[in-house]
DNA sequence: AATGAATGAGTCTTCATTCAT
DNA sequence: CATGAATGAAGACTCATTCAT
């Protein structure tokens, strides 16, 4: 069964929910099971068993199985890009505008930490995006669109300062993201392995700076 | 239902099968449906309907639903990395060893073409890898392991020629792959859009060469 | 779920119950919901919500969902026929025995008023009788049987006075009841429409008197 | 769960369905069970067991439990009133217009036979009408409305011939129907008892003719 | 070879009922 | 007394798979 109201995914927030201990246990069990086996291969009786509650309890707070998915992914999605964008803006709010490498390092470290913290949600999110075209479309429209505009502004700023190459900002963002993804992806497939954030950040920044930076003579 | 014998996925090859017109139609329908909705959200009756055959016919050649998946992914998986590795070896078989950029351009163009051609299989493959840990483990053991060894040799070769930075070859391969992935991924989510192979190759190579290349003075 | 102890339905009386404001609210909500959607399509949580109480409160007074039904129908059933029979007896207690038309008019007006007042209970009662054979059997045995005897006596009285045709009293009662039913039934289906008691009584009596009356020459 | 597409009930006809032996068995079992226990108190596993088939088979032809209900009631509803109305028209197609008593006797015998033959469907139909307001509304709009017009014409015809009293035709029809109902209803509650059509018809006609007929002097 | 009716285990979901707070 | 979280037994429905025709 496909997810009907993907819109709702982006509207609700987990924080607003009053969750009892058992209901949190349901979410924890669902997070594990969905990420390990996928949404469709996880039955609600699996969830109940792992959460140590009855199946009825699973449905008390989350009216449907999809409801659990929404409760898990909603807060996640709201932070994937928006927070990054917020970070950019905060950066400019500071009078001390950093050089691009400092800026990049901050972003990369922040996002790698976010990915590592939300590894399981990210895995579930990707699973859904690959088998639910609505999900993908809505995500792109609601989330990606707005972020691109702001990020582009940042890139142009550093391009004018002649710190990075004069490529299409979208292209630059693509490289930053895909390089980070190169470090994050293997950990999605084997979630028990932990990402070394510091080293990864150093490596990503080193590579990206070579790839798009401009050496001042 | 999880896939039981992932091992078998790597053993069988579609080529060995004698397929009638109707059976090919079943595979074509399955490829489309699996990639659009995911394996679990696709029912065998969906497949039969889209393929224009009876459900009985679906089960004539492919004993189970998983059998269809194996028939689709088996040949694909055997080519994801192995063929790339083969390409490397062929390169060395030639006496005319090219410079790294030429070598890189050939690999990138080849793999981007492969991804574009096998977009749907790739999408299904990723879906499975994310919800079937057996699949991931077997893939890594059987396929990735062997490729790494050979690729490492190639990288070291060019490092000794001082054409690329002296980083861990695995790290370099990670960047090459993730940069390509940055171009391929959006097309997985929206498979109707076609990748401009030439331009993408140019851009990938340009970025990678800046990122890991060493300018000869 | 079928009703187990229909017997009990006829034993208990609502009057014996001490009902708090909230419990009356439960009964009122149940009456509305049962009559609109039927007993089975009404959930106890619906009742609790409409009554503005918690589900626990619903079960405080009425041990089971069937208990609510019994509380609603018990008093109703005890009045459907018995009171009519009582009416007959009272009539004879009077020394002024009325002519049949007067007698009939009194009965019809009384029963139509009763139906109109207890429209919702009647609707629920019919629903139950049609899907609960125990209910029907018990009702006939306990309630109808006794009434018939007394009513027969009344009919024979008027037949001997040569006011009505000499048909089987059961047949005559059938016509009286079915003619009244002809006016009551449409209002069961559309309970918001109100029955015009006076006009209906006039019409019923006019028709019945033509049908079974004997003109004195 | 209420019935969603009552409209469909009136559109489809059982005759159009190709039913296998087992599927007919499902309908037969459903007819019995629904009429005995009611729609809601009958589970699909009950139906399967009584029909001697698997639960899957129940759902092969009738996509939902409601689908079975529609298959049972659709053909019934199309004949409740329409056929009666058709009968009237056919009567007028004959040059030998019968007197009202002959006409009435024909109608009553026909409808009592219909009720007796379709006793179980009628019982189910009434159950549904009492717990599904959509059902009632649609039935009245689609079926009753049209019939009234034609029946009214017939009544006026006999009124002009001075054979029956000059009451509102709707009122007359009400008496005819409710008197018949008086004979049919007890058999709904105890469906194993068979209605004596001939005697019932005689009695109904005798009573109705007294009630609305006009004696020619 | 092909069909599609038939199967039955398994899934999501509802709901009457209980009980700790 | 009142609450509502928790339970678990059904119930409607799906679907991979089989097999007689």
Summarize the structure.
Four copies of one chain form a homotetramer. Chain A has eleven helices and no strands. By secondary structure, chain A is mainly α.
What tags apply to this protein structure?
homotetramer, 217 residues, mainly alpha, Arc Repressor Mutant, subunit A, Tetracycline Repressor, domain 2, 2 domains, DNA-binding
Rg estimate of chain A, integer Å: 20 Å
For this structure, the CATH topology of the largest domain in chain A is Tetracycline Repressor, domain 2
What is the domain total for the residues of chain A?
2
Named at the architecture level, the CATH assignment of the largest domain in chain A is Orthogonal Bundle
Shape of chain A: elongated
The largest pleated sheet of chain A is described as: none
CATH C-level name of the largest domain in chain A: Mainly Alpha
> Hey, roughly how much beta strand do the residues of chain A contain?
under 5%
Main interface pair?
Answer: C-D, 36 and 36 residues
Q: How many strand elements of chain A?
A: 0
Oligomeric nature of the chains: homotetramer
Fourth CATH level, the homologous superfamily of the largest domain in chain A: Tetracycline Repressor, domain 2
Low-pLDDT windows of residues of chain A = none
Mean residue pLDDT of chain A: 85
* Share of residues in helices of chain A: over 70%
User: Pairing-aware structural class of the strands and helices of chain A?
Assistant: mainly alpha
| Helical run tally of chain A | 11
InterPro entries (chains A, B, C, D): Homeodomain-like_sf, HTH-type_TetR-like_transc_reg, HTH_TetR, Tet_transcr_reg_TetR-rel_C_sf
Protein name (chains A, B, C, D): TetR family transcriptional regulator
Pfam family, one (chains A, B, C, D): TetR_N
GO molecular function, one term (chains A, B, C, D): DNA binding
């Amino acid at each position: 069964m496909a997810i009907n109201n993907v819109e709702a995914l982006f509207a609700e927030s987990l924080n607003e929910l009053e969750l009892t201990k058992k209901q949190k246990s349901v979410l924890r069990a669902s997070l594990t099971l969905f990420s390990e086996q996928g949404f469709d291969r996880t039955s609600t009786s699996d969830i109940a068993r792992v959460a140590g509650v009855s199946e009825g309890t699973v449905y008390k707070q989350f009216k449907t199985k999809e409801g659990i998915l929404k409760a898990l992914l909603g807060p996640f999605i709201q932070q994937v890009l928006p927070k990054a964008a917020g970070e950019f803006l905060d950066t400019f709010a500071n009078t001390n505008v950093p050089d691009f490498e400092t800026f990049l390092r901050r972003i990369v470290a922040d996002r790698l930490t976010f990915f590592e913290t939300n590894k399981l949600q990210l895995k579930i999110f990707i699973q859904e995006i690959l088998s639910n075209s609505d999900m993908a479309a809505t995500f792109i429209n609601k989330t990606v669109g707005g972020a691109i505009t702001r990020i582009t502004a940042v890139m142009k700023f550093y391009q004018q300062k002649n710190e990075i190459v004069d490529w299409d900002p979208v292209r630059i963002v693509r490289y930053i993201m895909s390089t980070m993804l190169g470090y994050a992806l293997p950990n999605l497939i084997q979630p028990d392995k932990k990402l070394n954030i510091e080293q990864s950040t150093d490596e990503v920044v080193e590579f990206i700076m070579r790839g798009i930076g401009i050496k001042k003579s």
